[in-house]
Each structure stands twice: as C-alpha cells, then as structure tokens.
Write a structure and sequence with these properties.
single chain, alpha/beta, Rossmann fold, 5 strands, about 50% helix, nuclease, metal-binding
Length: about 130
C-alpha cells in the first residue's frame, strides 16, 4: 500500500504528466494521501490565483475530485502519526511536512511515493519514485 506525496499527485494536474507517474497511478488500487498533501495542493491553487485564476480554478476543481475519490483514504495527523514523527531516525533538520508524511507512512506501514526520495532516504520508510521507475 502506498502514501502519495504532493509532487506525485500534483504531476497529474499537468497537461502532459510524466508517463511513468501516469502509468503507475493507473495500476495502483491501494493508494492513500495525507491530509497535508491535500492542504499543500489547496494552498498552491490559492497562491496561483494571483497569476492565473483559470488554472487555479481547474486545480481547485480537480482537488475536489481527488477528495471525493480518496474520501475513505485520506489519512489524518493523529496521535499515532505524532508518536511516529517524534521517533524518526534523522540527524538533520527536516521540513515538518516531510517528516509528518514519513511518520504517516511509518504509522500505517505504507510506502512513500515521491519524486524527492533523497528527502526521505534516512527516515526508515520504504520509498518508490514513479518518475524514475
């Protein structure tokens, strides 16, 4: 089972998404997203409104579809995730959202699907990069 990082989900909003990502997503029934991923995409759409309101609207509408599609597969930041987060094996400063994504994967025994494997490589979670695979 897989936890989809923001960069993978966002790739699907592009007019011509990466073929590896597109093909991988089609073949995967057991995908989950973090509530943080939905928040990052929503904030991105909101920030885009100043430059390209039409594209922002398309992304916001797409995000609503994602929320419906993943309705029962959106994982919250709960005590189980926080307990995992505080024990992540890292010796470096880590962006909070990346740490919480890794902790969510660890708490639910999921593989993180991301383009940014280097960001997660020392956190003790399984990784998959559909951009490279």
């Amino acid at each position: 089972m897989y936890l989809i990082d923001t960069n993978v989900l966002s790739e699907l909003t592009k007019p011509r998404p990466n073929l590896g990502v597109k093909n991988w997503v089609v073949d995967q029934p057991d995908m989950y997203v973090s509530v943080l991923t939905l928040g990052e995409i929503g904030r991105g759409a909101q920030a885009l409104r100043k430059r390209d309101d039409r594209r922002a609207e398309r992304i916001a509408a797409w995000l609503e579809g994602v929320r419906r599609d993943f309705m029962t597969r959106v994982l919250p930041i709960d005590e189980r995730v926080i307990d995992s987060w505080v024990t992540l094996p890292t010796m470096r400063t880590l962006p909070t959202i990346d740490g919480l994504i890794a902790a969510t994967a660890a708490a639910h025994d999921l593989t993180v699907v991301t383009r940014n494997t280097a960001e997660f490589s020392d956190l003790g979670v399984r990784l998959l990069n559909p951009f490279a695979d």
